[in-house]
Structures are given as C-alpha cells and as structure tokens.
Amino acid sequence: MQLKNDLLIRAAKGEAVERTPVWLMRQAGRILPEYRAVRESLSGFKELVETPDLAAEVTIQPVDILDVDAAIIFSDILVVPEAMGCTYEMVEKRGPLFPNTIRSEADMKKLRVADPHEHLNYVLEAIKVTKRALNGRVPLIGFAGAPWTILAYMVEGSGSKTFSHARGMLYTNPKLAHQLLRMITDTTIAYLQAQVQAGANLIQVFDSWAGILSPAHYREFALPYISEICDAINEVPVTVFAKGAFFALEDFSKLNCETIGLDWNMEVAKARQQVGPNKTLQGNMDPCLLYSSFDTIERETKKMLQEFGPQRHIANLGHGVYPDTDPEKVKCFVQTVKEYGGVISE
C-alpha cells in the first residue's frame, strides 16, 4: 500500500524531504489519558501487549492525538525473552521482574530459539490489525531490543543501576554470555523478519543499556550481534538506538543500517562527524525539555533542528517520553518540528 505520508522513510533513506519528520519513543501510552482508559480496563500491561486489537488501538492513538509522522507498534522488548522461555512480570511502579534468571549452563538448557509465528504471533497480529486501521496514513515502526540489553535483563532479573550480574558474566563466563547472545540474536532476527512480513515499514533496534559497558566489552558482546541483525533486515530501513554508546558512534558508521539514534548527551556535530554523511540521525531532545514552558520548548526545538540541518534527520527525543509529561507540551514539540522543520528545508 502506498503511504500518504512517507517522510520518515525518505528521511531514513537519505532522500530529500520537504520538512523534518517527527515521532517520539514511548509515544504510545503513558502520557495519554486515552491510553490509561484502555489500560485500566485490563489486568495489566502484559494483557494489553498480548491483545492484538487493543495493542493496535493504543498504537494509533498518538497518530490521532499528537499528529506524529509514524506509529510504533505497542509492545515491549521483553516479549523476546518470554518467547524464549524466560518469563517476566511487569510490576506496577517497579518495572519488569524475571522470577527465573539465566546464570548457568543448566538455566540455558531451559531456553529455546523462539519461532515468532508460534511464540510471538500476538505481536504480528497487532501489526496486521494496525496496518489495516492506519490505511497508509503514516508508516508503522516495528522493533526489538538489542541482544546485549535483552541478556542484561535475563541475567539480572530486573532493571538495575549497575547490571552487575550481567556485566559480571562477561568476565566470569564469557562463553556462556556468547551462547546466550547467539540464541537471543537468532530469535530476534526471525522475529524482526516476521514483523517486516506482517507489514512493519521500518525497524528500530533498542540497545537501552549500551552505555553501561566498557568500549571493549561493547565491541565484543554487543556490536557484532547488532551488526548481524542489521545485515539480516534489508527490505526496510533499520534504526539503531544505543543509549549512552557515544564511544561506538564511529563503529556504527560501518553498520548496515540507515539511521543512528542519538540520546541527549550526544553532541550533534560530533556525532555527524563520527557516523559520516551516509547515515540519517534521529533525536535527540532531552525529554525533560517537555516539562518547561511552551516558549522554551519552541525555542529549543528550533535550535535542535538548526543543529541537525534539514536533511537526514528524524526529530525525536533522546529517550522515551516520561510518563508525567503533559500531552499539550508534546504537541507543542511536534508542531514546532512540523512548522519550523519545513522552513529550514527551504
């Protein structure tokens, strides 16, 4: 189906755009009362993720309400370990919790390389339902967590400031770490390929915990697996967003992907220099800007657009939108990009 708004895809591919496209990580959910109404009618987050019609409904809400240039399928990176046999619970106000962690050969034996059509079919169905409902209005982004980030949760058992168990494994049992990364990567490639077949127009790989590794460990335990994923997805553009991995930007320039996401700690000019002219950059407004006044949001957004320039940029935050953000402030950010992102393209 022909997209009515293909700005995001053209920007990702480095084609000329009339204005900068804009969307937000975590736009589907948390900040919207309409999302909370759907969520409160259910047992919790996981039921919403696993119910295709409802996942599609909350995926489309920000397109209708915030007027963004793309939808991102409502799901979670932790559906991958769940599909592999390592289940998680989503604890209110605490985040994910894994009752059983993966820390030994014996634990590894309980895992499988997941079949996306068997173990993750609810996500594929949600993509199909969303695509039909969007009817070509905007592109749909599919996603998965990067292998290192998924390993971090499976070994640690929950979110953490240090992920000391996961990082410790890289020193004490690197062989086991690589075995687990191999299984996660194989599952993720099959899963993302299935998302593309189901209708995803673009894929994003989230390496949320990239920044807690040393550069040497990142190059050994993270980059090669991300590189494999990028090589395996070639029908649609791929974005790699590795939070905190400023030390790897030059390495990312060699990845077989179209777009590199930047967090708000990364300097735009320096990042552009490191990744080179042949990649699109995405980001990188500090999510906390959206707590400030409308005037400040407008001023800082214009400044960001000028820094990136009119081409090869997808406007976004440098991380997911925070749950207590006023949706009106988000609309101000989106509208400023839409109005001013066209002016600097002229």
From TrEMBL:
Catalyzes the decarboxylation of four acetate groups of uroporphyrinogen-III to yield coproporphyrinogen-III. Keywords: Cytoplasm, Decarboxylase, Lyase, Porphyrin biosynthesis. The keyword Nucleus does not apply. Its EC number is 4.1.1.37. InterPro entries: UROD/MetE-like_sf (IPR038071), Uroporphyrinogen_deCO2ase_HemE (IPR006361), Uroporphyrinogen_deCOase (IPR000257). Homodimer. This is Uroporphyrinogen decarboxylase. It catalyses: uroporphyrinogen III + 4 H(+) = coproporphyrinogen III + 4 CO2. Its main location: cytoplasm. Residues 21-30, 141-157 form the Uroporphyrinogen decarboxylase (URO-D) domain. GO terms for molecular function: uroporphyrinogen decarboxylase activity. One of its GO terms (cellular component) is cytosol. It is an enzyme of class 4 (lyase). The record marks D76 as: Transition state stabilizer. It comes from Pontibacter actiniarum. Substrate binds at R26, Q27, A28, G29, R30, D76, Y153, S208, H319. The keyword Lyase applies. One of its GO terms (biological process) is protoporphyrinogen IX biosynthetic process. It is found in: Cytoplasm. It comes from the Bacteria. Pathway: Porphyrin-containing compound metabolism; protoporphyrin-IX biosynthesis; coproporphyrinogen-III from 5-aminolevulinate: step 4/4.
